[in-house]
Amino acid sequence: MPGFKDVYAVLPVADHSAAVAWYERWIGRRPDAEPMEGVAEWRIAGNAGIQVAHAPEAAGRSTVVIVVDDIDETVGALEAQDVTCGPIQDYDFVKLTEAADPAGNKVTFVWENPNYRPSPE
Residues in domain VOC (predicted)? Predict the structure, then answer.
């Protein structure tokens, strides 16, 4: 197995500047890198990040899942930045909500319930 170093979720967009502005709002900062024209990257956890790439032919067809420490706090922080999330869905073992970037890519925020215990069968 090769030694992996970093993982980036690539989110294709048609309007790169609108997408960068949207991600800047909820992440709270400018991109960490813009390695080439039409590409912006944010490191969001350890060696994981999001890359927004100008690719109109594929725009809006991706999903990234981000695990968070507190779903209610995350939704509140996103709403404070004018990022609209859907309703929080509660499945006992996880709670989740989704937001859509300007291209229609889905960003799913997930909280994993540390106290969940499946019922014995």
Answer: 5-112
Kindly state which CATH superfamily the domain 7-112 is placed in. Answer: 2,3-Dihydroxybiphenyl 1,2-Dioxygenase, domain 1 (3.10.180.10)
Domain boundaries, the chain: 7-112
Render each residue's pLDDT in the chain as its tens digit; 121 residues. 677 788 899 999 999 999 999 999 999 999 999 999 999 999 999 999 999 999 999 999 999 999 999 999 999 999 999 999 999 999 999 999 999 999 999 999 999 999 988 888 7
The whole-model pTM stands at: 0.88
